[in-house]
């Protein structure tokens, strides 16, 4: 048996943490698939019910479909110029059992969240999770938390697509933020918060050449 390679840099630590998170989501997905049901119900209906998430496909003729398509295309980051995004389908998702956990602080925003396909059963079934306390906070630009972006392509990068596997999922989430701290535009892409800002629940940065989009 080969000795595992040494983890020498914080980037490698972050990579392994992302791998562990993906494995946790995969383990949840496998547990859903392994649950036995003696009824004659369609197996897909059984697995869908176990997610406890209402998923409704949106018709292309609905006005909101075109709004979301334009929002996806016009919020493409100017630095992500080696690919384009195309909207294939829209699904409206809701978890009624988590509605009471949503704290409305008035500052509502529609923000994107991207993740690998292997993570979505866990995300839809359990919701978005923050890294556990025992995980090191180094490697996260703004510390531990749930990361959203107002740039569709920024979140799409976390799908980790390839030229052959170029279809993925991004979520457009209604986010209510409190004690909002905004960082000014910065030219360096390799920057992090070195000291936790404990008074703030939400942190963000303003991208360079930001453009406002009228919906």
Overall structural class, as computed from helix and strand content, comes to alpha+beta
In CATH terms, what is the architecture? Alpha-Beta Complex
Q: What is the approximate shape?
A: globular
Largest sheet, in brief, is: 2 strands, antiparallel
Task: Give me the number of helical elements.
Answer: 5
Please tell me the total number of domains.
1
Mean pLDDT score, rounded? 76
Q: What portion of residues is helical?
A: 25-40%
* Head-to-tail CA distance between termini: 57 Å
Fraction of residues in β-strands:
15-25%
Q: What do we call the CATH topology?
A: Phosphoenolpyruvate Carboxykinase, domain 3
Q: How many E strands?
A: 6
Radius of gyration computed on alpha carbons: 19 Å
H/E series: HHEHEEHHEEE
Please report the first level of CATH classification, the CATH class: Alpha Beta
Question: Strands of the largest sheet, in order across it?
Answer: 1-2
Taking pLDDT < 50 over at least 5 consecutive residues as the criterion, the unreliable ranges are 191-201, 206-215
């Amino acid at each position: 048996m080969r000795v595992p390679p040494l983890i020498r840099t914080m980037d490698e630590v972050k990579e392994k943490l992302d791998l562990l998170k993906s494995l946790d989501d995969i383990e949840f997905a496998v547990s859903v698939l392994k649950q036995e049901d003696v009824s004659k119900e369609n197996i897909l209906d059984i697995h869908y019910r176990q997610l406890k998430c209402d998923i409704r496909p949106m018709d292309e003729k609905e006005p909101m479909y075109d709004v979301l398509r334009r929002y996806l295309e016009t919020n493409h980051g100017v630095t992500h110029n080696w690919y384009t995004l195309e909207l294939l389908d829209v699904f409206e998702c809701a978890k009624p059992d988590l509605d009471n956990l949503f704290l409305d602080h008035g500052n509502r925003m529609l923000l994107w969240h991207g993740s690998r396909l292997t993570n979505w059963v866990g995300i839809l079934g359990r919701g978005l999770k923050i890294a556990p306390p025992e995980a090191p906070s180094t490697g996260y630009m703004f510390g531990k938390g749930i990361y959203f972006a107002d740039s569709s392509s920024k979140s799409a990068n976390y799908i980790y697509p390839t030229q052959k596997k170029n279809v993925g999922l991004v979520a457009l989430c209604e986010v209510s933020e409190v004690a909002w701290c905004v960082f000014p535009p910065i030219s360096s892409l390799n920057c992090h918060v070195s000291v936790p800002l404990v008074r703030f629940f939400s942190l963000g940065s303003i991208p360079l050449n930001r453009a406002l989009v009228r919906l």
